[in-house]
Design goal:
Structural class: mainly alpha
Distance between the termini: 27 Å
Number of strands: 0
Low-confidence stretches: 59-66
Order of helices and strands: HHH
Largest sheet: none
Number of helices: 3
Shape: globular
Helix content: 55-70%
Mean pLDDT: 83
Length: 66
């Protein structure tokens, strides 16, 4: 697992999908099933601290998604 990939996904879930932190923590398990609860919380905290306009490479959207 790459920290940047997880952080990007957490940021995407919070800022673009507009999930609550609790919902985003659950959804992170869909993408990274081996993450422990404490790890998910840490990535979400870091992602929440990033500015909304943070320009890191964003996760790919599913084919056919908006």
């Amino acid at each position: 697992m790459h920290d940047d990939e997880i952080l990007n996904r957490a940021h995407w879930l919070l800022r673009e999908v507009h999930l609550s932190p609790a919902e985003a923590a659950t959804r992170l398990l869909d993408y990274f099933p081996d993450l422990e609860r404490e790890e998910r919380a840490r990535y979400l905290r870091e992602a929440a601290e990033r500015p909304v306009e943070w320009t890191a490479e964003r996760p790919q959207r599913a084919v056919g998604a908006g």
